[in-house]
Specification:
wza like fold, alpha+beta, Sugar ABC transporter substrate-binding protein, cell outer membrane, 3-stranded antiparallel beta sheet, 10 strands, Outer membrane lipoprotein wza fold like, porin activity, 4 helices, 5-stranded mixed beta sheet, 2 domains
């Protein structure tokens, strides 16, 4: 009986050790990592944008100012400061450095109030649009969205001979689009997605 008891006891200890080893192995296995979502980039100021500059306790040098076509802005005590290509935070720090010559420890806040963006983030519409202009690109922007913002095409437009000029890997591509079919016939198949930097060219019709 003693021998059987010893045998059963040894088997119980061995089974417990195996069970513990299996648990340790399982718990020690690292969990698969989930890919973190890429952070969305901060908005970059571009020519044509408007910025609201607030200098704490100095309202006389605060205000709303446009970014010129050359990418610079001029504000009280700050002349020809490069703004295009910077975030609002970066621009605020640059303005603080410029104002430090006149104001002790300036605290500046910059808010972009009129969005156009840098040239490579714009959608430009030229030719026979009702309101040819540069538009800020927005995510999931379509050709129809662009046409709505520019008020459609003029009566002289050759809508079905329009094209999108797109730069891919440093090379320009020409994509033919059918504006008349899209806006006059309601043919949704003529709609297409836009990309930052696209130029929509709407030629004039020759009768």
């Amino acid at each position: 009986m003693n021998t059987l008891h010893k045998l059963f006891a040894w088997l119980a200890v061995a089974a417990s050790a195996l069970a513990l080893g299996g648990c340790a192995s399982t718990s020690g296995t690292p969990a698969p990592k989930m890919d973190a979502a890429a952070p969305s980039p901060d908005y970059v100021i571009g020519p044509g944008d408007s910025v609201n500059i607030t200098v704490w306790r100095n309202p006389e040098v605060s205000g709303a100012f446009p970014v010129r076509p050359d990418g610079k802005l001029t504000a009280p005590l700050v002349e020809d400061l490069p703004a295009a290509g910077k975030t609002s935070t970066e621009l605020a720090r640059d303005i603080e450095k410029a104002l430090a010559k006149f104001i002790q420890q300036p605290v500046v806040t910059v808010i972009v109030t009129g969005f156009v963006g840098t040239y490579d983030e714009q959608i430009r519409v030229i030719g026979q649009a009702a309101k040819p202009q540069a538009l800020p690109y927005r995510r999931d922007m379509s050709l129809l969205d662009v046409l709505i913002q520019v008020g459609g095409v003029t009566e002289f437009a050759a809508g079905n001979r329009a094209s999108i000029i797109r730069t891919v890997d440093g090379k320009q591509q020409k994509l033919n689009v059918r504006l008349n079919d899209l806006i006059k016939e309601g043919d949704i198949s003529a709609n297409t997605m836009m990309r930052p930097g696209d130029v929509l060219v709407i030629p004039e019709s020759f009768f």
